[in-house]
Amino acid sequence: MTTTPTGVDHEADPNQFGTTSFYAALGRAFVAMWAVVAALFAIEALNAWLGGRLTSTAGIRPHRIDGLDGIVFAPVLHTSFAHLYANAVPLLLTGTFVLATGLARCAAVTALIGVASGVGVWFTGSPDTVVVGASGIILGYIGFLLARGIVERSGWGIVVGALIGLLYGAQILGDVLPSDERISWQAHLFGFLGGVLAAIVFRRRRPRVAPPPVPMLELSTDD
């Protein structure tokens, strides 16, 4: 067992690369993300059975008050199974790494990204559109993972960020700029920025190492 001067057991730290707890957290996160993806497919099956009613009524409608609830519901809705298939793999990969940092942290990061992406779409999107899809969350996770290693000065975090950058670098550049009128670049851009902000706001602070005790010297005088 390896401990620090503060008595922290590194083997029990799920954020410490190479520890048993780290691999256990990663494995649990991977299984949990499979469950999330399965739930998204169930929602899309219901949406298809309803003739797309969920998409048309619960998506983000920019500049409209009745479209604000889409900020909450849009990330779990998709226009088709093909749309969901395109998001499933990157969501599974990026979500696993984010969830492995802790359930509470992942929930907070996801919420901030969802609000940033959704509000950005609502203010800047075209008023005659309905925006749905998990891609804003995915781009937010990418932003979070890229920024996390730098913010926390974590070697493992930097490696993960570099891996995500290599896999999705072209997608990041293409999806945060206006390129296809069928794709909401606003959701991607504000989601990515929300992820970077989440890496700063919810950064993991290193435990402070207690300073070594100062030896006490006794002064005495001879009678």
Please tell me about this protein's structure.
The protein has 223 residues and is an all-alpha fold. Helix content is 61%, strand content 0%. The protein has helices spanning 20-49, 53-58, 70-73, 81-99, 103-124, 135-152, 155-175, 185-201. The longest helix is centred in the first third of the chain and has 30 residues, at 20-49. The termini are far apart.
Let me know the largest β-sheet. Answer: none
**Total count of strands:** 0
The radius of gyration over CA amounts to: 22 Å
Low-confidence stretches: 1-9
Helix content: 55-70%
What series of H and E elements makes up the topology? Answer: HHHHHHHH
* Beta-strand percent range: under 5%
Structural class: mainly alpha
Give a short synopsis of this structure.
The chain has helices spanning 20-49, 53-58, 70-73, 81-99, 103-124, 135-152, 155-175, 185-201. The protein has 223 residues and is an all-alpha fold. It has one domain: Rhomboid-like (Rhomboid-like fold).
Present the secondary structure layout.
Layout: H1 20-49, H2 53-58, H3 70-73, H4 81-99, H5 103-124, H6 135-152, H7 155-175, H8 185-201
Helix pairs in contact: 1-4, 4-6, 5-6, 5-8, 6-7, 6-8
What descriptive keywords fit this protein?
mainly alpha; 8 helices; 223 residues; Rhomboid-like fold
